[in-house]
Write a structure and sequence with these properties.
Elements (H helix, E strand, L loop, with lengths): L31 H4 L4 E7 L3 H7 L12 E4 L3 H7 L6 E7 L7 E4 L3 E6 L5 E8 L7
Amino acid sequence: MSNCGAARITLADLREYRFGTPAEQNYRIFPDDLERDPKVFFHGTGRCFLQSIVDGGFRFPPPDRAQSVSFARTSDVPLGYAFGLGADGVVIAVRFDARNGSVRADEPFGLHVYRFDPQPEIVGYCIVPAAYVHR
């Protein structure tokens, strides 16, 4: 699929969702309309990677590591990857539309993506403060 003529998305274009009190929401940190949308998935990582993901898309780890990028059906799973890093983390909400031809494996928790065709649409993100303690 071609992105010819598509406007480039910047971090300023994306919606930042406020980090609330996860324990009060079953550790889900996005609104219910996103958490329940079957086309929306979530990825947790360090905040330091957010800009490069927005600029260049999700990238695969070095060859000596797993060769997929994981996305969960709900934000509670990636929240576990976005805290305890010694710095702020981030959970990114993405949408895979029906035309997406990415090579992926559906899993009970969500997806493993082995090749993007194209990158999923980033629909928003939530910064997980470094001070957050998962209880």
